[in-house]
Amino acid sequence: MNKILGTMALCLLLISCKEEKPKGNLQLTGNIEGLKKGTLYISRIGDTSFVTVDTIKIDGDSHFESWLDIKSPEMYYIILDRGKTNSLDDRLPFFAEAGKMHIETKLEQFYAQAKITGSKNQQLLDEYRKVNARFTSQNLEITELLLRKQHAKVAVNSDSIARVQDYVMKRKYLYAAQFALNNKDHEIAPYIVLAEINRNATVALLDRIRKALTPKVADSYYGKKLTAYYNERKNAEQAK
User: Fold this and answer.
1) What would the pLDDT profile of 82-100 be if each residue is shown by its tens digit?
2) Contact between residue 194 and residue 206 where contact means Cβ atoms under 8 Å apart
3) What is the pTM of this model?
4) How many Å separate Cα 14 from the centre of its chain?
5) Using CA atoms, how far apart are residues 135 and 211, in angstroms rounded to an integer?
6) What does the domain layout of the chain look like in residue ranges?
7) CA diameter of the chain
8) Quick one: which of 202, 215, 212 has its CA closest to 181?
9) Facing residues of 56 across strands?
10) Band of the pLDDT at 106, cuts 50, 70, 90?
11) Which PROSITE patterns does UniProt cross-reference here (predicted)?
12) Which residues 6+ apart lie within 8 Å of 235 measured at CB?
């Protein structure tokens, strides 16, 4: 009898000492090279502002880990509080989805140096940004050319410059729309429409992209937001 009681007590002790299983379906790990002390706020965008879902204190070791409960793939942010020093480079967005994700970056150029792995939506977002950067660069080049000519007091055809800029912007939005259609089976598709095209998309284009989404994506966080936005635009147009 004593042996049985002893065995039961040992089992209970082992169970009580067993490490609690992490809560969440996304294991996020990372390293911020050069960070010795600071606070990381892992956040998502709520109705009107950022909502912190986890807080991580960094003190000596620049590595971090967090378990997040991701109900649907969504853009999350790591907001870095450096403590005594301030910087505009303190926000790192990442497309969170269930599984394992890893972020490697540096204290200097916190955003620009970031390498994010483990998320297909993030991979697609990185591909989109590379092409989109070309349109931004072209637009800047046109603006710089205009400013140089004005500074040199050279006659400039403003209408011609405006037409070129308009052409670049149209290409940018068309690329975003085509990107969404090409990736209709990933949550990045409705996100790109909402974040990049928005008011520049016609109701017909919104409807086309919305209908092209796979059922899983249409029922996702951004898929539902796209449907709500489409209905809002359609109702506003019908009310005119």
Assistant:
1) 886 667 789 999 999 999 9
2) no
3) 0.84
4) 42
5) 27
6) 2-115, 122-238
7) 103
8) 212
9) 40
10) very high
11) PROKAR_LIPOPROTEIN (PS51257)
12) none
Both tokens of residue 74?
């969504």
Print the SS3 string covering the chain. Answer: CHHHHHHHHHHHHHHHHCCCCCCCCEEEEEEEECCCEEEEEEEEECCCCEEEEEEEEEECCCEEEEEECCCCCEEEEEEEECCCCCCCCCEEEEEECCEEEEEEEECCCCCCCCEEECCHHHHHHHHHHHHHHHHHHHHHHHHHHHHHHHHCCCCCCHHHHHHHHHHHHHHHHHHHHHHHHHCCCCCHHHHHHHHHHHHHCCHHHHHHHHHHCCHHHHCCHHHHHHHHHHHHHHHHHHCC
- Domain range 2-115, CATH architecture: Sandwich (2.60)
AA identity, residue 19: E
Give me the amino acid identity at 2. N
